[in-house]
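Q: My collaborator sent me two sequences in one message, no labels, and asked for predicted structures for both. Can we handle them in order? The first one she listed is below.
A: Yes, handling them in the order given. First sequence, followed by its structure tokens:
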Amino acid sequence: MNEIKVCLIGYGRMGHAIEEFLAQENCKLVYVVKSDEKWDIEQMRTCDVAIEFSVPTVAFDNICRCIELGIPVVSGTTGWLDRLPEIHEILNEYPNSAFLYGSNFSVGMNLFFYLNEYAAKLMENGGYPPQIREIHHIHKLDSPSGTAITLAEGIIQERKDVETWTLDEKPAEKSVRIEALREPDVPGTHSIKYENAIDKIEITHVAKSRDGFALGAIKAAKWLAGQKGYFTMRDYTRDLLELEY
């Protein structure tokens, strides 16, 4: 495979982590867009794919600009997802572009998403109400995490007794509570707990570092280069692991 030319949009912790792994994945960093910087459009046009990890306030505009330029873009920025439907509309206007969103790019976490949905289906008739806990570093801007929301949506999809998620300590009927904690130097921990008066079942994913997120984002970007349309990490994971579920 030819070397993939990559643009990084956002050069914070994740941007730096991604940069460290590009060479081993046969990718070359050719352009970096830092916060509040004017884009060099000619430089952008030399890129095969863009990887966007910025902040919620500018993520949507960054993604739209890439789509309009015809540059496939992978985004892991959370906190702006109420505008995802608009991305579908923009892709209809620019059908030769491609976009992939992931709330979490770790392959292990994406397997955890499948496990979460299967567990939710199994637990529905056992009298086990679901609860979610997520722990992240103190610099994370959004709460709950995009990953926690994805987990909650997976539970809602599989159970008739759950319709929404909440951060409230005393959740309303038919809602799953997400407990969001912020602690120093925690890349990301997510737990799903099913508990009643008799016993407790809990599954947990612990990220040991940002390396899994960085590598997953690069691999997803390589997969997206040359594609057209709207994708999520589920599409990439299903293709990578030949999953049918």
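Q: And the one she listed second?
A: Here it is, processed independently of the first:
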Amino acid sequence: MSDGRTAPPHTGVEIAGSGSALPEHRLTNAELESLMDTSDEWILQRTGIRERRRHDTSTPYPTSDLGTAALENALDDAGMHAEGLGLVLCATMTPDSPTPAVSCRIAANLGLRTTGAIDLNAACSGFVFAVSTAHAMIASGLYDSIAVVGVDTVTRHCDYSTFGRGAAILFGDGAGAVILKKTNDTAKGMLAQAMHANGNGAKSLYIPCGLDQVEDPESHQAEDGSGVDPRLNDKIQMNGKGVFKFAVSKFPEVIQETLDLAGLTADRVDHYVCHQANARILEAARERFGLPESKLRVNIDRLGNTVAGSCPIVYDELKRESLLEPGQKVMFIAFGAGLTWGASLWQI
């Protein structure tokens, strides 16, 4: 056992289990047509989304509840009890409240009383950043097992009217989780990773907590001239064209960077587990690297953009369909608010 200060010379890290959880309510494009000036055809052409999930708005802790359910499923898949976890690491940008952390509520829901719990906020990149961080903690000898949860209930920050349709059509709620464990098999673990951020792009995608945080207030005045439109407060604000341009550029760039760090070509990776932001962005990346459809799973048509839940949900789908095999290489890739972007390449 490591004393927590020095890393063992060779440490394998395995993804021992995965799980996911989704709200029951399916928010379809047809339902959105009844709420705002849009159409199923318009949404499909621009995003590839047919429906997304939305949490029960009557529950007080939707993020913690979904995260707990996903982690319970991951623990079952790994064949272990929550008491065996050394740390709960939760990636989210939609906590149920400023404090306590979502990870603390999840740990409490699982009956844990002394296990460490930390939240990490990198928006849609959150799970990718968190899984790389957890790997480093295990490889260094600090922990033998860590739960990594990616969960968001972002629909409560959407305005379901024509005023807010640009963002509302994109997002859905969901959670995914993985169990990382130390293993004697040194072939398993992270091969390369990249984490990036450019805070100068923060104004392109954000949620203002107060009207004084609204970017370019002169362009967002209320119709009665009383000041900044109050409908903007606590709702997602997005420069759609700007974010799309950023993603189309950075998505293939970070894939290539991570491949180069690992000394691999694109065809050597078995699965690209990508953040589901837009079907056109995913297709562009697939064509850029000449990947068959089987190597890049797309579920945005069914779930929309589930933020930090996106990558682990895709991974869990592949696992449940028996498409993941020992020795395969899997790359997690994401980009999001911050602006953030990153990738984490694993041999499973």
